[in-house]
Fold each of these.
Amino acid sequence: MPKFKNFKERGEWVEAQFIAEALRRGYTVLKPWGDSQPFDVALNFGNRIARVQVKSTSYRVSTGYRCEFQTNFHGRQYTLKQLDFFAGYVIPQETWYLIPARALFNGGRQPTGPMLFPMQPVKANSYSYECYREAWRLLRPKPEKRQPRMGDR
């Protein structure tokens, strides 16, 4: 695992890892200038942009890792109007979790630190966020349903 001087340096490294992986998978990546946006990276799909807040963890708890999805200490609160996805990277396991923001905002409350279990689960289907492990496909927009026109059969 790389050594970092502070959490800001680690956050910059994790964002770079996310960007590299997204590019490798064929996504078009946008990076806002500075730290004034509530998201770290955006993915451009032409008619839609997916805003992603990138987080990381190496904090092991029992058989998993706790990943904090709260804002930093600057008092800014995340909202569903600001973000589409959280990307959580479990550094020791080199594993990404691509979680829709709506799945973390429980009743509109600020997201907290869910447990992520990138190792083999003790009981299959017993962990809430495993369906989002390496779920890069979720970042792409769903195809729009075409409305039938007169003359269509």
Note: The chain has one domain: 7-139.
Amino acid sequence: MVEDELKTWLSGYRRLVIIGVGNPLRGDDSLGLEIVKEIKGKVPRNVRVVYGGSAPENFIGKIKRFKPSHVLIIDAALFGKEPGEARLIPPEQIPDETISTHAMPLSLLTSLIQKETNAKVILLGVEPRNLGLGEKMSPEVRDAVKRYAGALVNAIGKCYVKRA
């Protein structure tokens, strides 16, 4: 299901930035970082993979210089599902007031990226189980990292059109 939604969202992309967001010291919050590690080297040249960490706003200049048509942000997101479940969340559905381990709320980050790039922006949110400091990634989220990394690489490959 998420793979089909990704394919729809990616259709017609020219240049894509994928930014993994999270804190590697907070268990499942590192899932965005782990997904970008998994896909690095497995995507076409018109895809830039960014390890955004807990301060992804530091990469807005780099993202802007790449001139993407699409920007996919990957992070843990609390939306009341089972740990490891994912959904694509448009910027207008990202709450302004979120309890976050990041320096800047994702709603503000998506707004800045849209303003600076005019790109289509979306969040791939994955429901976490463990967000505690020093916790390990939960088994459900570890499995989800592999599953969504594969789905993302597959969706990108299906939507990639080589330009003559």
Note: The mean pLDDT is 90.
Amino acid sequence: MNPEDTYASDIAFTPSVKAIQEQKGSRQAYARMEQKGSWATAITPDLAAFIAHQTTAFIATANASGQPYIQHRGGPAGFLRIIDERTIGFADYAGNRQYITLGNLADNPKAHLFLIDFAHRRRVKIWGTARAVEGDEALVSSLMPENYEARPERAILFHVLAWDANCPSHILQRIDLDDVTAAIAERDRRIAELEARLANLQGHGAGSTP
């Protein structure tokens, strides 16, 4: 949260945004939200659980002239690590060597994380600042997913200033292949268990006296 902000949501609700909210009729509702405490500024257990299940993230940065850029980051569930109640970290893998995000962060530390869970139709927006940490092998190692085939080059630490969870409107539900495979395996296990119980019952029935 910036020192000049009254509410955590002021990081996004600038005077221009609030003016348009007033014109469009939504300012009163958001004013009530602000008075009730506004957005969270620390990572809650609910948010931590949500982050732990994500396999995709989008990090937005902007250069010194304000030109925005969004980059995809992904990995197995858990590749985003909660370091403390205000910090998210992840290993930055070798890529196409454009280094746009790194250059932007060198000029402007402000950043944004956008997380979306298609299976449960939930999205979370996180405002903050980010920095690249070079040469800290222990930190990078602690952020690497186990047995994941990627070459880490550095760590990215994201400091949370405020976050908000959106409604599921217009999020088309999609299920990851791993989740489908796990669900099918559980179904097959349950079917096998029921078939074994049925066979056992039938066996006892066949040996009984009429």
Note: The longest strand covers residues 152-166.
Amino acid sequence: MTNTLTVAELKRRGMAAIEEGLRRGPVHIVKRNKPAAVVLSEEEYARLTHGKVTKPQGLTAVQWLLNLPGTGTRSKEEIDAELKAERVW
């Protein structure tokens, strides 16, 4: 049987649940009855990567968003005025 841990149990028990599961090998995390992730021990991860961890290539999601050109037509002042009007009670 696969060494599984549900997200609900992970939320309830936290790191203790992961540590307990790792004693039996990799821990398969299940979210909404579907496989979501696998947690490995540090030793197993190092073995699989041969001790070489590669840096992800490309932009992060935040960097990508910040690089998008502006498409709005309102000025900052207009947006600020609208927000201020919405917040007046």
Note: The longest strand covers residues 34-39.
